[in-house]
């Protein structure tokens, strides 16, 4: 076999094995923190080795290899139960979505009808013109796809179909801020 063909085959087999291994495993819960992360002020760039070090294998597979998480997985079930809050990019902490634009599309992946910070979300039509990919504008992580005109009863009739694995959730503060508290 020609070296180039065998190398391609080995790479292909490796990619398929990664997909199988990651999709077959139970999903880790969505990253959830209680404080708003510091917002990046410039593009976040890391080497492949640095991304592998800072992301879990599932996050790396989706964000850096444009993978897709299993639909209707543990992450999606968790997403459906989450209350009010904000969703940030797990790669760079940029704000992406909010529970205010969340809706139930029954598609098996977290769905939003709009980003909460439009400047942090980039839509790129696939070369074949079939779908529009959605990436984080700050660290270039693959987030999912956006579909338009499906007939959902939302203000935009868009469905941002997002991999929950690459989201970091910050629940809305239910506590009353100190200065608004009634004196005892
Ligand atoms: Zn990002």
If you had to describe this structure to a student in words, what would you say it looks like?
This protein has 184 residues and is an alpha+beta fold. It has one domain: Peptide methionine sulfoxide reductase (Metal Binding Protein, Guanine Nucleotide Exchange Factor, Chain A, Beta Complex). 24% of the residues lie in helices and 22% in strands. The chain contains 4 helices and 9 strands; from the N terminus they run αβαααββββββββ. The protein has a 5-stranded antiparallel β-sheet with strand order 4-8-7-6-5, with no helix packed on it. The chain has a 4-stranded mixed β-sheet with strand order 1-9-2-3, with no helix packed on it. A hairpin with a 5-residue loop joins strand 6 and strand 7. The termini are far apart. 31% of the residues are buried. The mean pLDDT is 90. The structure holds zinc ion. Zinc ion binds next to loops.
